[in-house]
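Board notes (copied after class):
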Amino acid sequence: MADFSVKIRSETPFARIPVCDSEFNVIAYELMVGGTGQYQPALPEIISATLTDPRIHDLLNHRPALLLADAEAVRLIYSELRFPMNQFWLMLESRQAIRVDPFLIKGLKKRGAHFGLSINHGDLPDLSDELLSSISFIRAPSEHYLRRNLNLQVDGSWRCIASEVDSEKLYTQLREQGINSIQGRYLPKPETTDIKQFPSNKLIALEILNLLGDVNVSLEDLENLIVQDLQLYYKLLRFINSAYYNFNRKISNIKEALIYLGLNSLRSISLVIALSESTTRSPDLFYLALTRARMCELLAKSHGWPNESIFFNAGLISLLDVLLDIPMDTILPELPLSAAIKDAVLNFEGRTGAALQCAIYYEHVDWQKIEDSQFDKDLAHSAYLEASRWATTLQEGLTSTAES
């Protein structure tokens, strides 16, 4: 992978919570800012950073920013910040929404902002028709929708977002009620399978994983495997010759790529491309896997731990069941992975497991758990931002390569 030295800075850490549709495509990211303790919304800081700091902008991965706003924040945005608001979804806490001047909402909507309501207590409050006509989405905990009272009050044109979706059972119940936008920790991990043999389109990725588990693998072994799938072979060469690497000469074969990338990086990027070809799931799930893998690698690098590619591969493999739609207990027995990777993925053991768990804590915005871990919070934040930027750039490179 491309080299990067994590710089530890004393700064306010940001995190994001995705809003996903029923296929786990990310439709927006809720941006949160953290200080001492748990994350809290901080609208002025987030807007400023989103517009001026490219690292924070990269967290959005070309998606709108969902921000929790109160009446004073709406007034300040309207009166003091003169810029287009197309990339912002502003969410008003329902019990405070009555304090917001509808004139300000109309003005910000003309500048492109979307407005929504956040309901955390009770039913939808009694709001004016003028205010309700400006609303395009609503967010409430899953239990509010399951009680069905809220559903009767919601305008049919609003997007309904359910938060705290942490299990498949809850996800299924919400879908049965027509709630197709979610926030929470649930990922579509398969629990059972009738697969007798792996589908051919997923076999190449698993065979490359087999090679990753062999410390004595040679370049010839890797090359012989890749050339069995000509589409993968040509896509790998196109990507290596793309603007992502920007080498000063054209790479015409795998042996030349080894000279510029090294065997570990070549194996890792081959796995990334093979997985991108193998998965039929949302590209945003693949993006999550890339971010997690890169963050694990950066945490290892910052501590001077050897074999950084093991950390990268562990992060990627931790979402293998989600990407390939095959249960982990079906995949792992077929792969001769190192004990470090298997113990990290299954039980968060060792250094590799600690880095993987830290990355997952950041995904879940469990800031207190990061502070209690062995990783400095500023280091974790820097690694998270760089991993997000790297994953965005890499995915864009893979997409342009595929289109070419």
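Comment from the instructor: The longest strand covers residues 26-34. Residues 1-10, 36-41 have pLDDT under 50 and may be disordered.
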